Amino acid sequence: MKSSAFRLLCCDIGGVLGTNGWDTELRNKVCAHFKIAPESIEERHRLMFDTYERGFMDLETYLRYVFFEEPRTFSLEELRDYIYAGSQPWPENIAFFSRIKKINGLKLALISNEGQGIARHRVDAFGLRELADFLVISHCVHLRKPDRQMWQLALDLAQVSAAEAIYVDDRAPFVQVAADWGFAAFQHVSLDATRERFQKLGLMT
Asked: Rounded mean pLDDT of the chain?
């Protein structure tokens, strides 16, 4: 039974449902593991990353351009598998969002900046097909947050207005964009804090 006027719940993946994907922390771990100076890849990463996350470059091509400008002692496959292993789901958070969706009669959409390869791995590893009604992932739609069209696409797919939607993200700038767009948006900092925010919005938890 619905307990509020909301019809759509949207959230990010990394930092809300599990570890972040290909972020600075994981890149530094990769560099330490494979004994690469982080500054040696940073410029190439910066030049290639936007194209990769918008879906105009696959993961293997991105890794080849960024990491294999010189001979390495490891293979592209070893590097890719290490990156995949760096993605860890947070089962308690996933179960919580699944419960919120079900007991409040909401559609659940995931809005995430994720590149090809890494996104598919995380969808599989986190069980996101079972959780979400649909996903708006940057490499699939050729957009990246903070592009407002990311949020608008979620609204269009669910056929609801921003006033009927909630957005949860661990990054404050993206929360602000969603709030400006009309979502009831807030930053995820902990499961307890998010539960309290849902309650204040009139959801059953």
From this structure: 96
Beta bridge partners of 134: 109
Query: How far apart (Å, rounded) are the C-alpha atoms in residues 188 and 168?
Result: 6
> Which residue, 50, 66, 85, sits at the end of a domain?
85
* Parent domain of 105: 8-20+88-200
- Residue 1: pLDDT band (50, 70, 90) is very low
Share of the chain above pLDDT 90, in %: 98
| Unique residue bearing structure tokens 């696409």 | 153
Alpha-carbon distance values, 36 to 62, 73, 118, 143 (Å): 17, 11, 21, 30
Instruction: Say how many CA atoms lie within 13 Å of 172 toward its Cβ.
Output: 1
Helix or strand (DSSP H, E) at 61: helix 59-67
- Quote the pTM value: 0.94
Those residues with Cβ within 8 angstroms of residue 163's Cβ, 6 or more apart along the chain or in another chain: 5, 182
**Contacts for 83 with CB less than 8 Å, ≥ 6 apart:** 22, 26, 30, 118
pLDDT tens profile 128-138: 999 999 999 99
